Fold:
Amino acid sequence: MTSRRGDGNIQPQVDRVAEARRVLGSLRIDRSSTAERVADALRELIMRGEMPPGMPLREHQLVELLDVSRNTIREAFRLLSRERLVVHHLHRGVAVRQLDEDDIHDIFRTRRPIELMAIEYSATAPRRSLLELLALVEQAEEAADRDDWEHVATMDIVFHQRLVELIGSERISAFFRIVHTELRLVFGIVERPPDLFARFVPRNRRLAELLLAGERATATSELEAYLDEGERLLTRGVRVLFSGSDAVDS
Amino acid sequence: MTSRRGDGNIQPQVDRVAEARRVLGSLRIDRSSTAERVADALRELIMRGEMPPGMPLREHQLVELLDVSRNTIREAFRLLSRERLVVHHLHRGVAVRQLDEDDIHDIFRTRRPIELMAIEYSATAPRRSLLELLALVEQAEEAADRDDWEHVATMDIVFHQRLVELIGSERISAFFRIVHTELRLVFGIVERPPDLFARFVPRNRRLAELLLAGERATATSELEAYLDEGERLLTRGVRVLFSGSDAVDS
DNA sequence: GACGGGTAGTTTGTTGAACAGTATGGTACC
DNA sequence: GGTACCATACTGTTCAACAAACTACCCGTC
Structure:
């Protein structure tokens, strides 16, 4: 790390590396397999709600549609089922994941203990992380002002993802990314009033402020209220939806 | 659900169903794909430590060894990578997962908040579940008496799995099964004195007894001591191991 | 001797075709 | 109404082939 040349030429090696990093940093080469890109495309469709839950994904159909081989499609299916976006039944193929009331209950039963514990961990988190939470809330508020509920929903999820990341466990964070993806699936399905997510924004603001103030006991009850309300609203949302459709699971 | 025949022939339908269930209940038909069975076989080998961490799994080699097609092997690889037993690198294939010191640290950073929260949830858990924890400890003690350290390790993991299941979240339970599998991977690698797991047994006993007594504050500190000791011992175990080998990740 | 370049061999990624086995829906029959 | 049979659609699995990427090795150059 020390310069081995004359004074007129300080750290040429490091300079060149830094230069290269600066120039090449922007360009990003696609290093993904076809199966991954197929999975990306399908993920996009599923998350946007273009493919209704329960809809079977036929291999042959996708082969013609995407112009890739059957094996590649099947590999993409495996990737998606790892994220629980589709379910796989032997000899019956895969279908878009369909969450029922029990799933929502379990999702919140998952969020509750972990997010509550994240509040405890906020005690030792760097102040910068807590300020970032507040910044996310402000982004959500701006989005709400211009009626961009899609973005409000995204910010809500990112907020709680960041909250969980305060724990500092890479595994828990990755696990929560999947749980939050499932939650997004529900968002896409649910019959929702446009202000569904608007109700969460002020709660998140209060939560962020309480964490910054170090008032974790109050933050805990605020979070519990948030989760209770969220579960209630979403459960009601899917309940009006499940009138004549059947569930697919595993 | 009601009998539609005469009185001499009460609920013949139900009787026949019950009879059939009794007779057929014992026999279990193999409803798994070839890929799953291949994955099972490989999982067994990996968990038993037969395949050292970092060892590359060549498709062609396994095709000849197991007499299945390459595609099926690849499908099995996907299943295993979902459980994080192998890692997959594009164009480089898969290799047996190799955990380093950071992984162990992260595993315990994962266990700590969730298991601590499980203690809180033990307050509302049925007494039967807590008694089952105690029964598991007794099994471990018996195994320790006959120097069956393999089984002691298993019982330790099952104990903590059951503890986490007190939370009642199917997703958290499934997540922890994977984390515990990773932990087993470490067990298989680590240079361990035979009494490594023996030290955990009395701790687990105390833990179970404290939970039954409802003394959760004390149980919390007991669990923290257990986790601190576990992390310390395992970290030391892998540290003596990593002298000249290289890590594979992602 | 370190470095870069070419080259051959190995391994993976992907395709396409084929066949067997399983689910599904319908129709005829009792 | 229930059962058996049949045709169809789709999945699970195998096999052969080729392109692309990685690895290792040799070789000449500085």
Chain A is about 65% helix and 5% strand.
